[in-house]
């Protein structure tokens, strides 16, 4: 199984701000945890369609080079306040051989589907502080104005048989204002 703690992913979550650490280390559904702390959590679908994994996503997906994939980007919001920018990627092969239902996910949180299936397994979490040089910081900044120069993110891989889905969640400043 490919290693998640590569390409600078794997920083201990203990380096993150203390109030953010429980969010970064949550092993259950992030959406469920958000709903317990924030009213009116909803999903805004930013994009879902053909793309390629980012360079630091290739190894965790077990891919030696860029490949045709499906990329999904969303914001998790409380009302109109963005809390989390999430980026998911899976190869077309994974879509065909395990995660085909995700093709029609729409504005339903992925966690609702993934955690409802007992056959889906989750890897250990990996963390990283992102800055303006990272494509996911730039994608989050394109969706949410006025972000600080650094954000914390976590990443995990979900597997169903031989199908793999990599999800990265970038935590936005408003999550600390609960």
From TrEMBL:
Family from the record: Belongs to the UbiC family.
Organism per entry: Chitinimonas lacunae
Catalysed reactions, semicolon-separated: chorismate = 4-hydroxybenzoate + pyruvate
Molecular function via GO: lyase activity
The protein, known as: Probable chorismate pyruvate-lyase
Signal peptide start and end residues: none
E.C. number(s) listed in UniProt: 4.1.3.40
Taxonomic lineage from the root: Bacteria, Pseudomonadati, Pseudomonadota, Betaproteobacteria, Neisseriales
Ligand binding (substrate): 72, 110, 169
Pathway: Cofactor biosynthesis; ubiquinone biosynthesis
Role summary: Removes the pyruvyl group from chorismate, with concomitant aromatization of the ring, to provide 4-hydroxybenzoate (4HB) for the ubiquinone pathway.
Keywords, sorted A to Z: Cytoplasm, Lyase, Pyruvate, Ubiquinone biosynthesis
Subcellular location: Cytoplasm
Classification via SUPFAM superfamilies: Chorismate lyase-like
InterPro entries: Chorismate--pyruvate_lyase, Chorismate_lyase_/UTRA_dom_sf
Top-level taxon of origin: Bacteria
Pfam families: Chor_lyase
